[in-house]
Amino acid sequence: MITVVLLGKLADIGGAPTLTLPAPLNWDGVMAALPPALAQAADDPRNRVAVNGALLAEKAALQADSGDEIALLPPVSGG
Amino acid sequence: MRDIRLLTQTFFPGALIGPFTQANPGLGGVCTFVGEVRPDSEVEALELSHYEPLTLPGMHALADRAFDRFTLMGLLMVHRVGVLHPGEPIVCVSAAARHRRDAIDAVDFCMDHLKSAAWFWKREKRADGWHWIEPRADDTRDLARW
């Protein structure tokens, strides 16, 4: 299984701070597995994605296997 | 001397600055900025969330950049997470250097980056519930200064 961590407002939209999805996953797989409202919010081009704490240059580079942790990171809040 | 921390409980900036200053003997100046939750008649509370694998490492990377860019003896960078109320300190950055300009500029540099680019998500509680705070155009302008 893969843990998906939802940050910021994505946690509200997802209804929980984390969820688990079956491995393996690329970005298309994440989009297909998430509830539609969450998938739409997560696909915002301003969002960043990290795997095991390492930021990806682009979402399309996502490749996660069992035991990995994917973080979906909306833009950080301003001052 | 480098002291970078995330705190989950309220803190007293004065209690940090004394020991920080003492830990940098021979300094020529210390510059300290303390940010507090702004009192606002509509805001009851502010909540900061973070992502452990990125937030603190990101603060350390910012400290590395400050040490590279300015001639510093020490840097203190403390940031709150969790639920805060108006008037509570949210961030404290203090820089010690031989010369004032390095200390002042390092604090300014760190604050602009902490406010605009560090991994914190904020939401505020008003009478009608919680509201997420979106990025502001000012933050991009602040970063462009550097």
Q: Could you characterize what this model shows?
A:
By secondary structure, chain A is α+β, with helices and mostly antiparallel strands. Chain A is built from 3 helices and 7 strands, in the order βαββααββββ. Chain A has helices at 9-14, 27-33, 36-42, and strands spanning 2-6, 18-21, 25-26, 48-51, 54-55, 63-64, 69-73. A 5-stranded mixed β-sheet of chain A has the order 2-1-7-4-5. The mean pLDDT of chain A is 96. In chain B, α2 packs antiparallel against α3 (100-117). Chain B has one domain (2-144): Aldehyde Oxidoreductase, domain 3 (Alpha-Beta Complex), CATH 3.90.1170.40. With 146 residues, chain B is of the alpha+beta class. Chain B has 4 helices and 8 strands, in the order βαββαβββαββα. Chain A binds chain B through residues 5, 7-9, 11-12, 46, 50, 52-53, 55, 69, 71, 73-79, and chain B through 49, 51, 53-54, 57, 115-123, 130, 132-136, 138-139.
At the third CATH level, what is the topology name of chain B? Aldehyde Oxidoreductase, domain 3
Mind summarizing the main beta sheet of chain B? 4 strands, mixed
Radius of gyration of chain A: 11 Å
Structural class of chain B: alpha+beta
Backbone CA Rg of chain B: 16 Å
Write a brief caption for the model.
The complex is a heterodimer of chains A (79) and B (146). In chain A, 25% of the residues lie in helices and 30% in strands. Chain A has three helices and seven strands; from the N terminus they run E-H-E-E-H-H-E-E-E-E.
